[in-house]
Specification:
single chain; alpha+beta; 28% strand; OB fold (Dihydrolipoamide Acetyltransferase, E2P)
């Protein structure tokens, strides 16, 4: 593969990665994120359930008071294990709920507020950016090594025309 093709591929990878990150921020938030009312709640407990394919589903159950001070208990899936690990029973959390449907609520990082597959899209975007930069650097080094191996160019001897 020629150096120009490698540089073009690197540029396309970096541009695609940046475009992916930009598009991810453009994805509209859920109705709950836009119209939800904020309050404080408490994590009651966490649970993880094995799936048929060997993966796990991470759940968090929390309770919060609505505007009329009526308590609501909600269980939500947390798609990111790291976020789930940081939650502890008895921990105070910020809750968003719909005022007309108080049982529709969520916390940061859980279903309802998290954009679908946001972590996967970010991973793919950053991978494209890193791969593009690595490809460009390797191509640059390869070209420099080839230039050193070639040594100095031999002088060209030209003879003038005799008329």
């Amino acid at each position: 593969m020629r150096a120009r093709t490698k540089y073009t591929t690197a540029l396309v990878l970096v541009a695609a990665g940046i475009a992916g990150l930009v598009l991810q921020s453009v994805v509209p938030p859920s109705e709950l994120a836009k119209k939800g009312v904020r309050t404080l709640g408490e994590v009651l407990f966490k649970d993880s359930r094995p799936g048929a394919d060997g993966s796990f589903t991470y759940l968090v159950t929390f309770v919060y008071p609505d505007a009329s001070q009526r308590n609501h208990q909600v269980t939500r899936v947390v798609p990111d294990k790291g976020t789930w690990d940081r939650l502890k029973a008895g921990q105070e959390v910020k809750v968003l709920y719909m005022p007309d449907r108080p049982d529709e609520a969520s916390i940061a990082g859980a279903e309802g507020l998290a954009r679908p597959h946001a972590a996967a899209y970010a991973f793919v975007s950053w991978t494209a950016i890193v791969a593009g930069v690595v490809l460009a650097v390797l191509t640059l080094r390869s070209n420099e090594a080839a230039a050193k191996d070639a040594g100095p160019a031999s002088p060209k001897i030209t003879r003038g025309n005799r008329t």
